[in-house]
Amino acid sequence: MTRLTRTHALAFMVLALLVAAALRLPDLTAVPPGVHYDEAAYGLNAGDIGLRGERPVFIPSFTGREPLFLYLAGGMARALGNTLFALRLTAAFVGLLTVAATYWLGREMLADRRIALLAAALLAVSFWHVLFSRLGFRVISQPLLMALAVAALFRGLRGGRWPWLWAAGLLIGLTAYTYLAARLFPVLLAFALLPLLLDSDTRAVRLRQLAFVALVAFLTALPLLGYFYFNPDAFWVRIGQVAPGENSLSLTESLLRAFGMFFLRGDPYLRFNLPGRPLFDFVSGGLLLVGWLICLWRYRRFPYDWQRAAVLLLLLAPLVMILPTALAVNEIVPSNLRALGLIPFVFYLPPIGLIALLRDVERRFHRPPLTRAVSITALFILLVGGVLTQHRYFRQWATQPDLLLVNDGDLTAAAGWLDGTLAALPPGERPTVYVAAVHYRHPTLAFLSANYDSLKWLPGGHALVFPATGAALYLYPANSPAPAWALPYLEAEGPPEIVSAANGTELFRVYRLSAPPQLPPPAAEPTPATVPADFGGLITLENITTAPAAAGESLPVTLQWRVSAAPPAGASYATFVHLEDLNGHRWSQIEQDGYPAEQWQPGDVILERIDVAAPYGLPPGGDGLYRLRLGRFDPGDGARLPRVNATGSFAGDSLLSYDVAIRPGPPPDPLPQPPYPVNEAAVEGLFLLGYERGALAAETGQIIEFALWWSADRPLPYMTLGLSLVNETTGVAWPYGTIQPFYNLYPFSLWTTPAFIIDRQAVRVPDELPPGEYRLRLELLDGQQQALYATNLGPLAVSRTERLFELPAFNYAVGALFGGEIALAGYSLSDLETEFSGKNSVSTAALELVWQAETQPTADYTVFVHVLNADGTCCVWQADAMPRGGAYPTTRWRPGEVVVDAYEISLPEGAEIRDYEIEVGLYVAETGQRLGVVINGTMVGDAVVLESRP
């Protein structure tokens, strides 16, 4: 064979496609095993398009998806049914077309049948491409569209054919609808086509051609661009997820890993690779490097501008299209999935290197003829490479023990088991089915199970639910095993049924209950936050149980809820739990939604397990030293579900439980560093690691908070802490006196050592302190009050609190005393004006409440101002906040002090404040308990109604 004719090339390509089909088509539903979350989600999207008439430009669900592949899969679903076979068959056909397009692209871009044929042969037996051609993922469409687009572009550029240029623009625009990484494709083209503009003789023609291509591409992509313009979050959401984060790789390390995937070490993720296997072996990888260097060396030798553009494209493609995996530093790096945009361009580089070597051998030894050597090599690649790839894919990768579970094979099997089991039962005897899964409403079951709509979900294994009536069945897949805390309840009526795969891999366990098991009894002595506690009339907290925990561990909290009423449609109420100390400092918090509200049914009992972090540094103790603040909130806007008492009145937005005990625990190794390090030995065996500071400026009477980070390695003697504020100008110290660690509650002499303690303190700036610049000074004193150690804890700028002790003029006197502590002396009320905003308008009124402290207030009270409806119910308008918009808590007030609290009330259009009653009062935010009101020595309730005639 002296030359490779079109007939020879056609025969070779038929063989290449047959080999490619033999690798891509057999056992599509069985290999790979299982149906992963992402693949099932694609199946659902394809069904929406093919069977349910949706026509999206972009699919915002599942972090956002470009739809071109899903339209192809939707068409296949319409023809064959929305099945796994139809979805994967679509990907296999796209993969086969990509092999054929690779040959065409090589012919158009390089005008060399030998390189095109070798590249197509390499792609046909590529383990990398075979794997993705057998998965129903949209990414498989990206290489095909890029190959077709560039082939049409170069055919149009070589012959000046405008229909081909139009097709190129259309295909470039369609590439934007394939996959996220395709957004870099126009960047690659823009740089690669620069040689077309360097020749002054042809520049004008090339500019018109490229402008035409760009215009067609822009118009094709315009619907998608318009979607992103009106929905910018859809463009950025997935980019933000893979972008650099706090614990991500450095960009340098990520780039090195990404380039190493060519022939050193590849994707470590079993789902998309034999872990660590590079894209090319050492032979083909070495030829790839040789080919790239040859392109670089010969770049300027090509006479035609389109040839230089083609070579530059091959040079730049590995550098540009590797960026989607190199820049995804917050995810797995390298990633075969994100690097698929390298196909088909990198598959031309090994043939270029090989032909250069064969040509050199032919020149030196005059045998074998180059064309014959290429033909033999192509046959070798297809036959031997095909056998090796078949072995690697079907015998090595597909039989990996972990692949079944990595690919959600447990839920795949559960779908068939559930359908068979439930179909065998009469409708009236079917239990309520609860399925645990990492993800709520897992797409694998949605795609595969006919009973999906009747399933209840236990995401994350954080909750266990018992229905109000009837039997229950609980299915725990291998990827979401039943948590240890739930086993006593699940196994109350017997051990589980275990279902395993043919290879012995456990797939899932099934637990059955005919009735709710015995639940933990309520505490014998109710805590200050007694249960049951009704939240919003929707759900009641019936019991709280905790167990002691050491610092550095998790504090186990089990909440027993009972659903009172079905929540509003679309409502979501997650649980929040805050671990606080007696001073209100929040040490840790957690929010979780163990059983989403849209599944609640009246009578359901929900056991929710929450593991609250007990952070290192937490001083040990119990007996009210710590408390849990818990409740329900809407994750969308943060609004808390209110507690209501037996009369339906507001009782706070959370519940406090003091059943918390923290044990001493070993210190962490290494010790953490505080925000302001000191790292000094205070006394023998006691080290001050540093400190935390709150505000660096304060007014007199305001509380300042700070924390000392201590480390102790031996028992400590009796010592105290001395605090003072030292004036920066005069050096005069203003002493606070002596205190003990942790709000004066945990003396050094009681420490269990070795210990790491975060010693939180809260002190009030004295009212008598002159304004100025101060330093907070700390001394460690022995039993005789002698200083053992001293250090500075940073600056504090002090300003004077302006206090008013004389009543100002006001329009209406009230003379109401709230809780025996704070009097409402009077108020002023006036209409303001109507404000217009577009088509709407509101009327406003100004209200000034004049308060006076009768004694020192004992708590920070919340003021409520309610403009009542005509029937006396709340509310046309309301405000609930500490005085002066939360800026002046009542504990800062002094006996006799007067505080003017202003509000601007908004009313409906045309309304006047005289048309409404205004209710005013004070309450404790934590409990909703209102302060009683006394007027002229007579108790009149828990609020006053103001006259509203200005």
Automatic annotation (TrEMBL):
Domain Glycosyltransferase RgtA/B/C/D-like: 67-225
GO cellular component labels: plasma membrane
Topology term for the membrane: Multi-pass membrane protein
Principal place of residence: membrane
Localization per Swiss-Prot or TrEMBL: Cell membrane
Family matches, as Pfam families: PMT_2 (PF13231)
Signal sequence annotation: 1-21
Residues annotated as transmembrane: 85-105, 117-137, 165-198, 210-230, 279-297, 309-327, 339-358, 370-388
Tagged with keyword Cell inner membrane: no
Name this polypeptide is given: Glycosyltransferase RgtA/B/C/D-like domain-containing protein
Organism: Candidatus Promineifilum breve
Taxon lineage: Bacteria, Bacillati, Chloroflexota, Ardenticatenia, Candidatus Promineifilales
